[in-house]
Amino acid sequence: MDAVPIRVAFNATPLLSPLTGIGNYIVELGRAFAQLGGVDAYSYYRYRWREGRPQPPQAADGAPSLVQRVRPWLPFRSALRRAVHGVGFAAGLPRYRIQVYHEQNYVPLSYDVPVVVTIHDLSWVRYPETQPPDRVRWLSRGVPEALERSSAILVDSDFVRSEVVATFGVAPERVTTAHLGVGAAFHPRPDAATAGTLRALGLRHGAYVLTVGTIEPRKNVAHVLEAYAMLPAALRERYPLVVAGAHGWRSPAMIGRLRELADRGQIRFLGRVAAAMLPDLYAGAALFVFPSRYEGFGLPPLEAMASGVPVVVSDRASLPEVVGDAGWTLDPDRPDATALTIAAALDDSAARTAIASRGLERAARFTWAACAATTRATYRAIL
For position 68, what pLDDT does the model report? Predict the structure, then answer.
């Protein structure tokens, strides 16, 4: 007989904004729980509870954005808004007989049940200059207490696990790695399958270099631009550089540079790409480059690998753990060396095919089902 499902509360507030890495984590893990079973989910959207797994509000019930509806009536400062948020959350825990609260965004709200926290990375500790100051302050205040009070701690990679243990003195047995997964939408696609999307973007299948990520300092987009500019003109003509990513913190200067280069015809800057178009964009690339200085996991390279595309990734943080020997590495401080790696890869189709094949095998190891199973086991362990 199957065990009785655990009643778990999720803070779905990040889903009220355009989805980022944490938002996708919340959505994908919720979807995996729905298939795996054993978890009765209850989701909290800032000022309202909803029974069921976390989903963006429009997907959940077609309602207008809750942020838009309540903001005119609650013109509080952020600290007061967080306090009201916490009160509403705490009131729902006994009402829904919650057994475990899983905070997937570092710092829990008010609670009086066992709590599991997910720590995705320590970027605000390692590279505070690449984060908004208010976020650094929020995490610096909230994370140490969260780690101390939590019943269990989840991390996205062994790299982050070692950082949490070393930085905060947490007992290693309290920290569990639950590698993230790659969505089913990301898989190899032939020319005919990507044609509609790529035609609309002015691209050709197998004829561009791609980088995807939020436009912010930590993602190190400038490195790709410098490396690409060093390529022979013939390669740049044959393989235009495509940059896709939403505006992030301290992005105006880089956005301006990207638009200027695009206006000159030197690159293609797409900005935020619709989720429905992203799998085609990945699958049509000749090469994927990801020069981030610091990642707690790094989903974009995994999505590219699952799409059958060879990758070149930074040799820092968690990225070697995720990519293994299924990609080329770059030094994020050496654009000249990256240019040589990109040129060699673009000139050798057999090498790209071999790396892409290894990438497909590697990506198959990372599934949301496995992530959900490890996470559910953590819930059961603390109960």
Answer: 41
CA distances (Å), origin 66, targets 41, 57, 216: 20, 8, 27
Domains 6-181+367-382 and 191-363 are alike in CATH topology: yes
Closest to 324 (Cα-Cα) out of 342, 305, 349: 305
The CATH architecture that domain 191-363 belongs to is 3-Layer(aba) Sandwich (3.40)
pTM, entire model: 0.91
Structural Rg of the chain based on CA atoms: 21
Extents of the domains making up the chain: 6-181+367-382, 191-363
Model confidence pLDDT, tens digit, residues 56-77: 987 544 444 444 444 434 444 5
Three-class DSSP category at 271: strand
Choose the CATH number for 6-181+367-382 among 3.40.50.2000, 3.30.930.10, 3.10.310.20, 3.60.15.10.
3.40.50.2000
**Helix ranges, the chain (H):** 21-36, 57-61, 66-70, 78-95, 123-126, 133-149, 158-168, 191-201, 221-229, 233-238, 252-263, 278-283, 299-306, 319-323, 335-346, 349-363, 368-382
**pLDDT score of 292 more than 80:** yes
The arithmetic mean of pLDDT across residues 236-251, rounded, is: 93
Q: Tens digits of per-residue pLDDT, 92-108? A: 999 999 999 999 999 99
